[in-house]
Each structure stands twice: as C-alpha cells, then as structure tokens.
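Reply to dn_fold:

You asked what the input looked like. This is it:
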Amino acid sequence: MTVLVIGERDVHDLLPMHACIEAMQRTFERLNASGFMQPLRILAWQPDGAGAIAAMPAWLGEPSALGAKLISVFPQNRQAGIESHQGFVALFETEHGVPLAILHAGAITAIRTAAVSAVATRVLANEDSAQLALLGSGTQARTHLEAMLAVRPIRRVSVWSRNPEHAQSFALDAAEAYDIEIAAAASAREAVAGSDIICTITASTEPVLQGAWFEGGEHVNAVGASVPPFRELDVEAIVRARLFVDSRESALREPDDIRVPLAEGAITEKHLLGDLADLASGACEGRTSKSNVTIFKSVGLAIEDLAAARTIYERALAEGRGSPIEF
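and this is what came back:
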C-alpha cells in the first residue's frame, strides 16, 4: 500500500487561494444534496490549559472523501515563532477505506479557513466594500487579506493586534506584497471605524469587537474563537447582526461567541438565520439591505479539510508532487 505524504510547501503550491475559494464554493453549494457526515470535534486540553489536541473526522459525498484532521492547538506558540496549529489530515478512499494521503494540516487550515470566509463574504458583504479591518496579525490575517482581496474591491486595510509591533510588521509586509493602503491601528475600535468588512482572527478569550462600534452595513467574518474559552464578539454584536454560520450544530454547541448570548437569553436559536450551505445554494436570504450588519461565525469544519485535501491530492497525482511511501 502506497500513501502519499504532502508537505507544507506542496499544499501551498497545489492549493492557491483562488482555487480553494472555488473548491469551498462548490462544496457548500452541493453539500445538502451530495450528503455528509460530521460529528462534533473531539477536544482534549492539557491540564495547564497551554494546549489541546483535536480530532475532526468526516465523510463527504462530493468531492468523495473520507478522513480526519488530527491537530494540536497551542495559542502561545506564536511567541516562540511557531505556528499555533500543528498536525495532519489523513485522507482515505470511500470504497474500501484505503488510506490515500497524509497532508500538512496547518497549511490546509490556514488556506481553507480564509477561503470559506471569502465564500461567505461573496454572499453577505456589500459589493462595493472597499475598507477592510483585520483584528489579529497572525497567519489567518495574512490568508484572510488575500481572500478578501479576491472577492471584494478592497483599497484600504487597517490591522490591529494586541501586540502593536506585530501589527506594524504585518502592515509593512502586506503593503509591500499588495498595491493597497494598509496601516496598523492603535486600537481595535480605531481599526474597525469606517470599515466595510471586519475579520476577527485572534486567540482572545475576551471580546475584541463590540456591537456598539457598528455604524451600519458592515460584514464580519468571526473566525478566531471556535471553542471555549476563546471569544471575540460581545453580546451586542451578535444581537445587532443578521447571523450566519458554517454549521448550525457546531455553532450552537461550540463557540462562546454564540453560546454566551444564548445562555444569557439575549438571543434564541432562531437568531441564527442559516448556514453556509443554505447561503451558497440560495436556500436562505442573506443581506436584505445595504445597512444590515451581517456576521458569519466560522468554527471550522472537517468537511472543509476533506474538500481541500481531496483537491490537493488530485493535483499532486496529476503533477507528480508529494512523497509516496510504502505503508
């Protein structure tokens, strides 16, 4: 039995952002019709809370895929210059369950997370959105900047980080990479002022975005907080917005961005208006006016990892990439 090992560099080469956006778009458009099976993630924390290991298995009808992501999450890794997410995606074929490939999970997560936000942004953000705020300056800030530029005519970017030096460094690097105006902001409130699109991509355990700051018309991709104790949005932000998610089951049970306002009685489950499959297929209405505030709450799904892994695997075979090993 031969298993293909596909490392970080090959993942980035074989899954450029524009290709991943289209792969995620097709996956969610067909999701309800093609079928999927996906339990909630299994998460085990170390006793000191410094890090956790998560398992995310799934079956996906189209593209046909079976597999799981096994990944560690250590938020403080960034201080040591190490990525916070470490692990692999195991891909199997669906007729006999034979292993096909092992892929770099950190690279897949970085690309597909931003690509899914781009799919949501296509549907929910005003078409003339030109100002972007990034709350966070890590890997997801980099990929979300690329993804937002791919789907909206962004001309100005503000970036904020709890570490001002990181925000400044990010702004300098991004300004060199893209022909846009980009600047570091002194505060989260300053960053979001006047913004059309806001991406929250932090490892914060306290809200970094407040609903009182909304001016009307914003679209928010809330990405960084997928499980307790992490949280990026205050209750008012959720209450004021038209709320959409990647998975209704996961969103109601995993992220504190939604669990807290539910527990406080500020919203009911009806406040969640639809998931990304509904939006992508046109089964639910997203933005109803230019002045709506919309939120896409992303928790990250195993089916997204599988769709990305299947796309990478097929391209690797076609291009002779990756390292085959006898297993």
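The chain has two domains: 2-109+303-326, 126-300.
Hope that clears it up.
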